[in-house]
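Submission checklist for the structure archive. All mandatory fields must be present; incomplete records are returned to the submitter.

[x] Identifier: Phospholipase B1, membrane-associated
[x] Organism: Elysia crispata
[x] Residue count: 270
[x] Sequence attached
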Amino acid sequence: MFCPLQKLGAFPCPALSPSDSVPTSVHELRPSDIKIVAAIGDSYTTGRASGGLCPFNMLFNYRGNAWSIGGDNDYDYHTSMPNILREYNGDLYGFSKGVGDCERNFNQAELGARTDFAEQASGLVTKLQADSNVDFDDDWKLITIFLGGNDLCEYCEYNITPAVYTSNLRVGLDILFNNIPRAFVNLVQVMNVGLTQTLRKGFISTFVLSSACPCGTFPESEEANELLAEYTEAYQQAVLDLADSGDYDSDNFTVVAQTFYRNITLPYKV
């Protein structure tokens, strides 16, 4: 099912040793101190259609390819956060591998998921507690949350306002904060789904986008397009506000806003 991978090259950063002792504060973590990785998200995190340039890959979830939680191959062939962390800790655990759900491990993402991720969060708590490879109380965990694209893509149908978006995030974060010790949470800002408007060319792309992102790709008016831009900015600000609120910050747990998708552009040539 995979298209051939090209070798990217060796890891360019110097090796860093673990802390002399297991850190007692999340604010003292080094990459090599992370023992467990997990992720919550939508199709970006299931790795949908990421198996290469072959057309039929659109039908499959390549969870082992997901940038935040995929562990297929190694850094030489695939740049993902787990593959980077494995350069520092070869015993890293929890990353997903392969196609489908058989080796999804702590990849909780589901196709079509929106920011009401309480079920994913609760499921992650249960999995972490039940896995004999996890020292639930003492292992440091890196959890990446990347959601919001589907909320924007459907905002005009379900009126998913920034207030609703923020409330949904809070519910899920509360579950993680109250139930998972020793966790560093990456809360990733949503990207601008309006960029898909540049892709509505040809029958196949139009058909796919009309189903996957109707409100983002086909706004009904200029006013609707302006509202989409307004919601996008507000969603992104909500992530910053939640991370800066202090509500999820202690020695045992923290939430950090990741902003790298904020001004992303599409790679039209690969």
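[x] Structure attached
Curator remark: The longest strand covers residues 34-41. The chain has a mean pLDDT of 86.
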